[in-house]
Fold this protein.
Amino acid sequence: MAALDWISRKSLDIADLNKPAAVRTALDALKLKQDGTPAAENTVNRKKPVFSNCLRYAVERELLTTLPLDKVDWTPPQTDDEIDFRFVPGPKLAKQLITSVGNQGERGRHLKAFFGCLYYAANRPGEAANLREDAFTLPEEGWGEVLLSTSTPRVGSGWTDTGESFDTRGLKKRARKATRAVPIPPVLVRMIREHIKEFGTAEDGRLFRAIQGGHLLSKEYGEVWQAARLEVLTESEAASPLADVPYSLRHAGVSLCLDSGVSPAEVARRAGHSIAVLYRFYAKAIHRNPTLEPADPTGPRGSRRRITPALAVNHEGATLIPRREGWRLRVLRRSCAWSTLGPPMAHSRGVTCGFLAPVGLILVHAWSTDTGQRRDRGGSR
């Protein structure tokens, strides 16, 4: 009762929110933490929609005549969402860190493939923690695939129905039953095979689990990650934000794809991002690579030819996908409007120049894998 009494004394009458001064006071309060110090920009931007939704509900219930936010000239603080690539590990360092994880005793060996999924498949930790054996396609040779369908982010036991400190849900910002297929390079295929051979799976098929067999928590894999950092990095590097959290491996994996020339659309699909989010967070990685081909999503096999050489620089056993003899066809663009494809686009044989494509026109190029002879053909659909 004391709490309710306090709320009644401190709360404004809903009609007072028709006054711009009251709304501004509430908005300014969003900028502060409980101790009166400034809140982080992302915190403010997260709270403002909640406040707005409350006001919209009041309008819906006819407690307010109009949305009072429109009466106040108030701008939330700007945020810088771009990733600072000074602290994202490159391919060589990423491999060293993953190898070092495997050197951290039995727990490290158990979690090595987990960190491999974060880097080579650009998984979120919550996605990788819930992976099961039947989610993988693991051929004897070449590239495989992992099919993501669930995520188990840590949210705190007070916020779940089960009392667990994690919540099992669908993929982030996707329909509950949505899935995402991600091609995985041979180095990760071998890593997963070796993990299953040595550690098997949990009763429910999960590959990675806690010491007692339960759900893998961030505290546990975070401790192994910090031990690997101390082993690999210099003292000054370890004191810096360089690869400071396991999530940096995901940033490194996305950056590897972009630096290898894979289409941003394909990279966004694999990472589970929208194109807008990819450009907001990875703008520097996109703009620093002038060879990206926005008109050619390439598909899994085409992008593998781009990523494999980058992996081969620092990862043993990653070899180019062998080409079959004969002719191959690839749809370069199925346009939905008149559009300029931009600068010349380099492919494995020859160069395709930019052109204007009308609605319904499909441009295909074919090339011989033995002679290099190429044919271009346009057609309508």
In short: The first helix runs from residue 2 to 10. The two ends are 70 Å apart (CA to CA). The beta strands are 136-137, 144-148, 180-184, 327-334, 339-340, 345-346, 351-352, 356-357, 361-368, 374-380. The mean pLDDT is 74.
